[in-house]
Specification:
The structure is a single chain. The protein has 206 residues and is an alpha/beta fold. The chain has a single domain, classed as Rossmann fold (3-Layer(aba) Sandwich). A hairpin with a 2-residue loop joins strand 4 and strand 5. The longest helix has 17 residues. The radius of gyration is 17 Å and the shape is globular.
């Protein structure tokens, strides 16, 4: 069965008026477009879905079978997240970062597999051996997306994935999204409508 994300009456507030409330949706496949003005809660929502922040109220579950949420360890590998706050080790190369995080999760870690994943996001063989602290904004964006897909997650969460990318980079991300949404679910947050190609669902915040 496909991995399903179920969200029921989700709310997040930092005191005062909630950023969002009563948010409910279910997704197993396809693209969910999350849009809204700056400060509307897009980043916060994706962090909650990724398990990096807690909601004020409501429920969410990642399940492969109805009524059986994935244990936390399995969920961490089933959900991939990339956003502006994702920090990697600057003193390591792109290849070394991916190999390190695979090993940290107790998974097989081969440099050639890391190189393949980095090639898929358009990073050159020369670039991926450089220290990450030397990367440009666009290169870091590509690396974050490769990191989000490191465990081939069924649910991919992308926060402003096109930011800082040129046209070639945007095309690369669109290809990544097309591949991921065919196999599972992609939730993509942006305030730029060009980032959404025929989404199956829409969430408007703010």
């Amino acid at each position: 069965m496909p991995t399903t994300l179920t969200v029921e009456n989700l709310e997040k507030a930092f005191g005062g008026t909630p950023l969002f409330s009563g948010l409910s949706f279910t997704v197993a496949r396809g693209l969910v477009a999350v849009s809204g003005k700056n400060g509307s809660g897009k980043t916060t929502l994706l962090k909650i879905l990724a398990g990096l922040a807690r909601p004020t109220a409501g429920r969410l579950a990642v399940e492969r079978e109805p009524g059986a949420p994935l244990p936390s360890g399995e969920r961490r590998l089933a959900v991939g997240w990339a956003g502006p706050d994702l920090a990697l080790y600057g003193e390591l190369s792109a290849v070394e970062n991916l190999v390190f995080f695979r090993k940290a999760a107790g998974r097989e870690a081969r440099a050639e597999d890391a190189r393949r994943r980095l090639d898929e996001v358009g990073l050159s063989r020369e670039a991926i051996e450089r220290r990450v602290q030397e990367f440009s904004t666009g290169m870091m964006q590509r690396l974050r997306i490769a990191f989000a897909r490191l465990f081939d997650p069924e649910l991919l969460l992308l926060d402003e994935p096109m930011a800082g990318l040129d046209l070639e980079g945007r095309d690369t991300v669109h290809r990544v999204v097309a591949s991921a949404r065919a196999a599972g679910a992609v939730i993509l947050a942006s305030n730029d409508e060009r980032d959404f190609l025929a989404p199956e669902q829409r969430i408007q915040l703010g």
